[in-house]
Amino acid sequence: MTVNQATHHTNRDTRCARLDFAKASPDVSDENLRAVWKAAGGCGAFEFVLPPGLGSSINSASEFVEEMLLFGELCADSGLAMAIISQIWTIQSPLIRFASQELQDSYLSRLLSGELIGAFALTEPTAGSDALSLQTTAEHNRAGYILNGQKAFVGMGPVCDFAIVFAQTAPEKGRWGLSAFVVRADDEGFLRADRQEKVGLNSVPMGQLEFRDCWVPEARRIGREGAGATILQATLDWERCFILTAQVGAMRRQLNECTEHAVSRKQFGRSISEFQSVSNRLADMRVRLETCELMLARAAQLYDTGQPLTQFAAMANLHISEAFLSSSMDAMRTLGGRGYLQSSNSGTDVNDALGGVIYSGTSDIQREIIARMELGKSSQPKNGGD
């Protein structure tokens, strides 16, 4: 067997293991979260968009989208799928792109195996998408930094082994005064609050983090001091492009289930699919699915070719989050009483979809980004103009 053949077989086996894991859709609880996370690592669920020599050979965003669409279609737990994708893009990717080799060596292999759980700590009680108003500070001290502040609504916060934390190192420098750090859960002064109960995405524990004179060595700063805004913008772009990929896979599942139900369900002597109110919903669900898949494909193309992402990332996040919420509601309406049962995924999908229009920046924020960048284009002088 050649090296290429061996690699092909390895990738095929890994893909089969990932899809088997997705189909099993293990119920996630506080008691078994670690075991589920390690099982995800064991089947290669985190092995995407990696540098050569580390993990699988799936190094393009286009392949990631293809794989995670299928994963999301098969996995009934959107929260688990979102948590996996979040680790890929908000934890692993910034470490790969910006961290020192020492930090990468310390964390990446254990992230891929599921041994470690990371958290992305940006939002604060009084600050969210406005990163320059963050209040968490990092004061240089003894070849390191002393962190003080709070982070709010942190996914995986209550269970994380470490967090990527954004803090002000020189507030007077504006965007150049923000820095990023790897802060470990066993660092003195790192406090994790209890889990906050949410409406949906229950497989993603969420809570507050607090730093009280928490000392972090310089070696765990990501990139140079003052590079935090650059790291943050890149990470938010990646997250906004791809965090909802599995939910688009879930939209495939919704459409298939609703179509089968509409054809088989009889009322007034005919299939309910023959009623225009029902068939219109199916048409809308199909259009949303198609446009979301196209947006993911375009986002992946932009990423893979190194093109700017910020405006399109906001468009993708806005469109996909709103589409998943609308299609989840349409699925509930189409399935009727069956969709309202606990045994159905419909109610869970609706609750999970509500988080999508908030996560990674609300729909209002995404519209602000899109409009601001569009208006910025129109204000630029045209060639040959006055």
From TrEMBL:
SUPFAM superfamilies: Acyl-CoA dehydrogenase C-terminal domain-like (SSF47203), Acyl-CoA dehydrogenase NM domain-like (SSF56645). It is an enzyme of class 1 (oxidoreductase). Residues 119-214 form the Acyl-CoA oxidase/dehydrogenase middle domain. Its EC number is 1.3.99.-. Residues 33-115 form the Acyl-CoA dehydrogenase/oxidase N-terminal domain. Residues 226-372 form the Acyl-CoA dehydrogenase/oxidase C-terminal domain. Keywords: FAD, Flavoprotein, Oxidoreductase. Its cofactor is FAD. Belongs to the acyl-CoA dehydrogenase family. This is Acyl-CoA dehydrogenase. It comes from Ruegeria atlantica. The lineage of its organism: Bacteria, Pseudomonadati, Pseudomonadota, Alphaproteobacteria, Rhodobacterales. The gene is acdA_1.
